[in-house]
What we know:
Elements: E1 7-10, H1 20-35, E2 39-42, H2 54-66, H3 90-102, E3 106-109, H4 113-125, H5 141-149, E4 155-158, E5 164-169, E6 173-178, E7 186-188, H6 196-206, E8 211-215, H7 219-232, E9 238-242, E10 245-246, H8 262-267, H9 272-280, H10 297-303, E11 314-315, H11 318-331, H12 334-347, H13 353-356, H14 359-372, H15 382-385, H16 387-390, H17 400-404, H18 412-428, H19 433-447, H20 451-463, H21 471-478, H22 480-498
Parallel strand pairs: 1-2, 8-9, 10-11
Antiparallel strand pairs: 3-4, 4-7, 5-6
Helix pairs in contact: 1-10, 6-7, 9-11, 12-14, 18-20, 18-22, 19-21, 20-22
Amino acid sequence: MDNTPVRVRIAPSPTGNCHVGTARTALYNYLFAKQHNGSFILRVDDTDIRRNTPESEQGVFDGLKWIGLTWDEGPDVGGPCGLYRQSERLDIYLQYAQQLLAQDLAYECFCTPQELEVERKEQTARKEDPRYSGKCANLTPEEREERRQQGLKPSLRLRVRKGAVAFEDIVRGHVEQDAALMGDFVIIKSNGIPVYNYATVIDDHDMAISHVIRAAEHISNTFPQVLIYEAFGWEMPHFAHLVLMLNPDKTKISKRKGAVYLGEFAELGYLPEALLNFCAFLGWNPGGEDTQELLSLDELQERFSLERCTHSNAVFDTVKLDWMNGMWIRRLAAEELTPRVLPFIIKAGHLTPQEAATPEATAYLTALLNLIHERLPRLDAAPEILAYFYQDWQLSEVDTTSILANKSNHTPEEILRVLQLAYELISHEPFAAHHLEEVFKQQAVALGWKLGDLLMPLRVAITNRKVSPPLFTTMELLNQERVLARLSLAMAGVKEAMA
């Protein structure tokens, strides 16, 4: 690398919440900037007036902050480059356009959308690549004034030179395209709004961007941007185009295939650390003998390099994401998980916000999370897994069929006696998990039952499920009164089934 200060940016459009693709690009820019003591800039590409909303812009800010990224300059934090929203820079774009017009590097085009559509159809019919014919390229001042008198508002087009348009890509190497494929393209629309490729070049130049790191779909945009840099005589930044993100069926990742916005991943119970970690591997790997997959933001900063970005498109594998999320959950102590899980418990209706604010509620949830910590795949799974700790049920809801089901062919009468015995023992023995476990092991031997056969009807009676965390710890957390009430309900259910 040369000695130019590293300045990188992302420029999302505020037309929706923060996309996972934006998060991946932001992460790579952030890591690159931090590695080189550079600046990471957030710029808002908000020239799509019909679709942009303040809520969407805030959604971008919130989404990136949720995964742990912060920026050195931007519309919300300021910076030496002043204006970080394109909508605030319209006069700047027009001033630069006047410079191109004065040098005859751009010209006014009065073609209507209808005329351009006819031209495209004619070219397609001739099996030619559609591009502007240049019919307004050499209008005289009188011809331009005549069109103005007709009420036509011109757009501005760049005069495209002949020959190859090329750039060196850090990830992909030498990339080029014949300029003849483009035709003279619009840089300012007839309504005075700049097109993306033009505004981006102006912004990147004014903000001294040293490296443009973005997704592969922008390669086609880079060619006209190179021509704009040339027209102004400006030095180009270094380019690096990242691989596309695909669904497992190799289609481009989209809303139709599942979650794509960071807010959706948060609602689904993914940890921001896990999603950030997962995104890092969508187009990069540390290489060599480094097989570690669980990496924090600081660890990624140590290992990342653009040279290790892959050439093959990345598959967004939710199975891998779920695995990684589970591993990150297990990295956290139950006390750290509690405030993250609590909103899901409230949303499920297990606690009111007022109840959840009490020390007793948070301490209880922490104890429950200690019980299920190793089997929790996502935070949103916690309310369902823990439901029987918060909810009770009626006789009609008792799963009597599962209570009576057993592989050893014990009769309903025998199972009822086991439930009655359990009720008596739990009523009179010290109510502690380790003690009750020993008592029931002894009872299984005395009855000649396998311990699993003895505990299964108790498990279903107490949790209304066939699978639960360790039964005696579960009982202790439920408390003696609730366990006895559920055993009474189960016995009533079995008696009703036997009648």
